[in-house]
Design brief:
The protein is of the alpha+beta class. It has 3 helices and 5 strands; from the N terminus they run βααββαββ. The longest helix is centred in the middle third of the chain and has 18 residues, at 37-54. It starts with a strand and ends with a strand.
């Protein structure tokens, strides 16, 4: 995203109870009246949940960092979730009926303008960008 106006971050424990904290942080960072706020909160929750369950941070004392960037003029939002790199990578699982798991990254893929991940230095960052319609 070019000409970022606001970038904020928070680090939380990599435990299920902190997913709510991460969502609340994203809501606050983006701003409740922002047209992309709901999607940003939803998708951030999905990615933080993945970090808590599947990353190398999913150990006692593990941490996850959430960073939010709101573009100048409020045009777009980028959310990055960084954890200790585990053995898995974010993937789109095939749709499997009404199963409970595997839908998070499908939501990210459906709602985000772009998304991806990078690894380095023992860390993994999964990110997404939202743009107004």
């Amino acid at each position: 995203m070019d000409q970022a106006e606001v970038r904020k971050s928070v680090t939380v424990a990599a435990v299920p109870g902190q997913v709510r904290t991460a969502r609340a942080f994203v809501a606050s960072a983006v701003g409740g009246s922002h047209p992309l706020a709901e999607a940003a909160v939803l998708l951030a929750g999905e990615i933080v949940s993945n970090s808590v369950r599947h990353s190398g941070s999913a150990v006692p004392g593990g941490l996850v960092t959430v960073a939010v960037t709101v573009a100048a003029g409020g045009a777009g939002v980028r959310v990055e979730v960084t954890d200790c790199s585990g053995e898995s990578t974010p993937v789109l699982l095939p749709a499997s009926g009404d199963g409970e798991g595997g839908w998070g990254m499908r939501l990210v893929d459906a709602l985000a303008a772009r998304w991806g991940y990078c690894r380095g230095g023992g860390l993994a960052t999964t990110w997404f960008e939202l743009a107004p319609d």
